[in-house]
Specification:
Mean pLDDT: 84
Distance between the termini: 36 Å
Radius of gyration: 15 Å
CATH superfamily: VSR Endonuclease
CATH topology: Endonuclease, Chain A
Oligomer: single chain
Helix content: 25-40%
Structural class: alpha+beta
Strand content: 25-35%
Strand order of the largest sheet: 1-2-3-4-6-5
Length: 140
């Protein structure tokens, strides 16, 4: 059975996974193999024209890590809204926060996964856009 994804998109996702981002490598060590609360994450998952840094498919959560070049990025806002439209909540952290406060970042991700953080949050060190899960055609 042929793959649903094009060879170009598969190659792009692989290239992104093998990038030299220490923050992504650090967070991946915490997320892989269901280490965080038993939730399964994947890296560089395609969602429409974009690639999510990390995604938990079962809970429809995207985790993005950003460097300083992303500060105030309108591209990232459009990207978040697209993913939200696809039913994914998106949480963004700064690379430096992962490197200096890995435990706090993991606790925040776990709070989202467990439903303890279920509304939009926009702060200098965190951006979370919540996509309400649909039940029977309507939002929760």
């Amino acid at each position: 059975m042929p793959s649903r994804r094009s060879p170009e998109r598969i190659a792009r996702a692989r290239a992104l996974r093998h990038g030299d981002n220490p923050a992504e490598a650090t967070l991946w060590n915490e997320l892989k193999a269901k280490k965080l609360g038993g939730y399964k994450f994947v890296r560089q998952m395609p969602i429409g024209p974009y690639f999510a840094d990390f995604a938990c498919r079962s809970e429809k959560l995207v985790v993005e890590l950003d460097g300083s070049q992303h500060a105030g990025s309108s591209y990232d806002r459009r990207r978040d809204e697209f993913m939200r439209g696809e039913g994914f909540s998106v949480v963004r952290f700064w690379n430096v926060d992962v490197l200096k406060g890995r435990t706090s970042v993991c606790e925040t991700i776990l709070a989202v996964l467990e439903g303890r953080l279920a509304e939009d949050v926009i702060a200098s060190d965190l951006r979370f856009v919540f996509a309400a899960k649909k039940v029977g055609g309507g939002a929760l």
